[in-house]
Specification:
single chain; alpha/beta; Rossmann fold; six-stranded parallel β-sheet; 40 strands; about 20% strand; elongated
Length: about 1000
């Protein structure tokens, strides 16, 4: 039976998930399992393997799909436990490296401003845009990532060249930069040889032989296998060669290439002849018969390494570098027996195929279904080809595909020799020789049992400094009967010798160099910097790639990448387009400057109808985007009933509901008239509202006063006690506070009050006790000076003293006055309002003025009062998210460690994590309100809708939880996330306004 578990928004890199898949498939009871991210390509793989269910088909690209075929549902629990342990071990290993992790390239550059190289190992379908971003920031790029179109490669390499940086790749598996191993690479001693290689295992073979010969390598610059194609035109190869020519510590330059386009090859040779340094060049597939001037042409990778070492040591160049074989064998195979090469390295496979085809006159090479050679029973297979790695780890990491091929080839009665490579180094399997040994033994035993002769020949590509043991790999292979040679070239020669074919190179002659030398271009400052310093790397993708960098003295920041916009290709394209429009950043800067410059003062408390014209009549304000009474949830309808009773438009609940249901009352969103209201947000004409004026430009905002705790109108209660309290606030509290404020010249400076309260542990949504007490401290003397009844003064002061959340409503008006001032800049993507009406969550952004962008609202998660649970909760409601819009509340969770457990955040470290996460979707920090527990950073400033959509991180809002039935009131408190769809709609609308059409 098939079982599917979806881990929402739980991105992991593909290699980690492939290894996890392999581990789970070894569990007893698991028939078949695959763990993949929910991309369309991965769903096709799951479908092809019979593991795709409707749940898996509905997964998003950032969702992890665990698809299991098992006979018992209990097996699924074991799979989940094993998955959790595997991924946790990865996290622990990552943490142990001490490398700082971030979630954006901007954060990476903030952490390491001097970074000069971005190392990519992300899915190819997303890579081109991400690489372009790195190039735009002046970073060199090392792209381990493959599956990038040739058109994108050409475009990006031209861009890199224009910016003076290099794009190494795509599909660049190996590199050494200033002695630092990068990606799948071996540890070689430093020296005076610089390499430029349009192949990965070609570099590995040459560098490891150089190391074993006593030489050393300072740089090995991978370029990707297509760089010398006619389309690309050797852009990176040229820049790298020029850079090494100007690099003083490089005495010898080596160029390694898979078969190049002839025109490009000739241009590169012309460039090499213009250098002042000696060069070794190998163009795989060519069989050169001479050297020319200081340019030495090699036939094999071993010859390349040996010439380079002689040049580096100042030794005389030999005319022939063919070495004796380590194994003495006699030709013993019958004429019909063939050689089969099973390679993890593409360049090693190409070299083997070239040598075998030349020796046996088998014709041209190809690359169909991974077969580089497939003629007359002779086969050489690149098991790293896409046909074998789709949905599976590379064979350097995982032996499975090669084990299966060994079994298949050994079962072929015509197979006489199987040739293997065993590639060591960072990124490779910790013991590939040991992993292959059982299948090698089984194949030999099977052959002997059937009276057949079967030989295994191998070479180990590695050094004594590699994380795996070079000698142990050799010993393991020899112990199971493998004939091991020093190089791939010698292994192939040995295999052919078993067939009775002696293969060797003819002596090369020496010719004079061409007389004319062309002037060389200058290396850019960025290339000079890269080659003359230890790399400072932003590692984007596989965390394990930081291991070798840090171990050998490089510096790295880990960017925990995941697809932007949840993998939505259309949205990614749009975001990338918008990110390149610098005018948007300028516009957003204008918006946030107004937020920073806000000067809110509480100047009065007045009847709502005296300042809000629409309330002069039977009209109510409500929270959130527009909504009709019939669509309101229970708490908001209850608040409407209470307001009708308070205003005297009806005498009881039944008649109040009838009036509301028959259209006897009109409704307007608070936000449409400069007001905000908590929870239901219901505001009527005779309710007193606090008046907050932003002295920056006199933008004014209004909010009703906080009623205290218990059964209150804002949570939908409408009993006599609730109505009587509202009347007291109308008749006494409001007028008293109004008179007191008149004694405060210019009003109460709220910026100062907020700045003090945030240092005392308030975040201004769930926790306002410090601000409420400071407010009381400011207001009490003013109230006490009034010439009114002493009992009335006492009742007002006592109410303020007892109402811990009184300042919440003040803060809402503050936030509204600041954000309404900022939204006068009608450009950009800054979020200027967030609000909920119990059905919909709505946002506004600066560039779209008054337009709301809505999506279904979520229900809060949190803690409940005794006797209540999530089943009783109403979906989120209220205008109080205006506090998060200005950067406090849930955005400033770290400021209020005292409240984090109450709202379900867990503790201080979770609060810190939340605030750090919220800062990723904001443009900056507000210096006016600094948070001591956040190293005195200012509160988050300017939620950027682009960043929300790109990261998938939505604002977290601290909120009260109302019972879904009217009249019950508050039943808990918690947090809720804004729905992503609101921000996506806003960005699409703004793009359309700018004239961008991505449909």
């Amino acid at each position: 039976m098939l079982y599917t578990i979806i881990k929402k928004n739980s991105y992991q890199d593909s290699i980690s998930l492939m290894l996890l898949t392999n581990a789970i498939n070894t569990l007893d009871g698991v028939v078949k399992c695959s763990v993949m991210m929910g991309t369309e390509a991965n769903k096709e793989i799951l479908n092809g393997s019979g593991l795709l269910t409707p749940e898996g088909a509905a997964a998003a690209p950032n969702d992890m799909i665990i698809a299991v075929e098992a006979g018992d549902e209990k097996i699924v629990e074991r799979v989940l436990d094993a998955s959790a342990k595997f991924l946790n071990d990865l996290a622990v290993k990552k943490q142990a490296t001490g490398t700082k992790s971030v979630t954006s390239i901007d954060a990476a550059l903030a952490e390491m401003p001097e970074a000069n190289l971005a190392l990519f190992s992300i899915p190819g379908e997303y890579a081109a845009d991400e690489i372009e971003k790195a190039l735009d920031k002046g970073l060199h790029v090392f792209s381990f990532t493959d599956n990038i179109s040739i058109e994108d490669e050409v475009r990006l390499k031209r861009l890199a060249h224009e910016k003076g940086v290099m794009l190494m790749g795509p599909d660049c598996g190996t590199g050494v930069i200033s002695g630092i191993p990068v990606a799948f690479t071996n540890v070689v001693r430093p020296g005076n040889i610089g390499i430029v290689g349009a192949s990965g295992t070609g570099i590995q073979e040459v560098t490891t032989i150089i190391d074993r010969l006593g030489g050393g390598v300072v740089h090995a610059i991978g370029t990707g296998g297509r760089d010398l194609s006619e389309e690309v035109g050797a852009i990176t190869v040229r820049d790298a060669i020029v850079g090494l020519e100007e690099h003083d510590p490089t005495d010898v330059i080596v160029v390694i290439s898979k078969p190049p386009a002839k025109k490009v090859r000739d241009e590169i040779v012309e460039l090499l002849h213009s250098l002042t340094k000696p060069v070794v060049a190998i163009f795989l597939g060519e069989k050169p018969d001479h050297h020319q001037g200081q340019v030495h042409f090699a036939h094999t990778l071993e010859e390349t390494a040996r010439i380079a070492v002689d040049l580096a040591f100042g030794s005389k160049i030999k005319c022939n570098y063919t070495q004796p074989l380590a194994n003495e064998v006699k030709a013993s195979l019958a004429s019909g027996k063939t050689v089969k090469g099973l390679y993890s390295g593409g360049t090693l496979a190409a070299e083997a195929a070239m040598l075998i085809a030349d020796a046996l006159d088998l014709g041209k090479l190809g690359k169909e279904a991974g077969y580089i050679l497939n003629a007359n029973g002779y086969q050489v297979i690149d098991l790293g080809d896409d046909v074998y790695t789709q949905g599976k780890p590379h064979p350097m990491i995982d032996p499975e595909v090669r084990v299966n091929k060994i079994r298949e080839c050994a079962a072929d009665a015509d197979t006489g020799v199987i040739v293997l490579d065993c590639v060591l180094g960072y990124g490779s399997h910790p013991d590939m020789a040991g992993a292959l040994a059982p299948s090698i033994r089984a194949a030999q035993e099977s052959a002997r049992a059937s009276g057949r002769e079967l030989h295994f020949v191998a070479s180990v590509c590695g050094t004594q400094q590699d994380p795996q043991s070079y000698q142990a790999a050799i010993d393991t292979l020899k112990a199971c009967g493998v004939l091991v040679e020093e190089s791939n070239e010698r292994a192939v020669r040995l295999a052919l010798k078993l067939k009775g074919v002696d293969l060797g190179d003819a002596d090369k002659r020496f010719e004079a160099a061409p007389a004319a030398k062309k002037p060389l271009p200058k290396a850019s400052d960025a290339v000079v910097d890269l080659l003359n310093s230890k790399p400072r790397i932003v590692n984007i993708g596989l965390p394990s790639f930081t291991e070798s960098i840090v171990a050998y003295g490089g510096r790295a920041v880990q960017y925990d990448w995941k697809p932007a916009a949840g993998g939505n290709k259309k949205m990614i394209k749009l975001l990338n387009f918008l990110s390149r429009m610098s005018v948007i950043d300028t516009d957003n800067g204008d918006v946030i400057e107004r937020i920073k410059s806000g000067q809110p003062f509480l100047v009065d408390v007045v009847p709502a109808k005296s300042v809000i014209e629409v309330l002069n009549g039977r009209a109510l304000l409500h929270a959130g985007p527009p909504i009709e009474y019939k669509n309101m949830t229970g708490p908001m309808q209850g608040s409407c009933v209470g307001a009708v009773l308070f205003e005297g438009w009806a005498d009881d609940e039944a008649s109040a509901r009838k009036l509301l249901e028959t259209g006897g009352v009109s409704f307007t969103p608070c936000h449409h008239v400069g007001a905000v209201g908590p929870m239901g947000g219901i505001t009527s004409g005779n309710m007193p509202v606090m008046v907050v004026k932003n002295r920056l430009d006199d933008t004014t905002a209004y909010c009703i006063m906080n009623e205290g705790i218990g059964k209150v109108l804002r949570f939908g209660a409408f009993s006599a006690d609730v109505v009587n309290r509202l009347k007291w606030m109308r008749d006494s509290l409001g007028p008293v506070l109004s008179k007191a404020l008149q004694r405060k010249e210019g009003g109460l400076n709220l910026n100062v009050l907020i700045a003090r309260a945030i240092t005392m542990g308030d975040e201004f949504h769930q926790r306002n006790i410090a601000a409420s007490l400071i407010f009381l401290k400011e207001m009490a003397p003013l109230v006490m000076q009034l010439d009114i009844d002493a009992q009335e003064k006492l009742k007002v002061v006592s109410f303020l003293a007892d109402t811990d959340q009184f300042f919440l409503n003040v803060m809402m008006a503050v936030s509204k006055s600041i954000m309404d001032s900022a939204r006068k800049v009608t450009r950009g993507t800054v979020v200027t309002a967030m609000s909920r009406n119990g059905r919909e969550f709505g946002v506004r952004i600066s560039g779209m003025g008054d337009e709301w962008f809505t999506a279904p609202v979520n229900t809060p998660n949190g803690l409940y009062f005794t006797g209540y649970s999530a089943d009783d909760a109403n979906p989120d409601i209220g205008d109080s998210a205006i506090t998060e819009t200005v950067g406090v509340g849930g955005m400033a969770m770290v400021a209020a460690p005292g409240v984090t457990r109450f709202v379900g955040a867990g503790g201080f470290h979770d609060a810190l994590r939340v605030s750090n996460e919220m800062s990723e979707i904001c443009i900056g920090n507000n210096p006016t309100w600094t948070i001591p527990t956040w190293d005195f950073k200012g509160t988050c400033l300017g939620i950027d809708a682009r960043k929300v959509v790109a990261t998938g991180i939505t604002p977290l809002i601290n909120t009260g939880i109302a019972h879904k039935q009217a009249g019950v009131g508050q039943i808990g408190a918690g947090t809720v996330r804004a729905p992503l769809a609101c921000f996506e709609k806003a960005i699409l609308a703004y793009a359309k306004k700018l004239g961008i059409d991505f449909d």
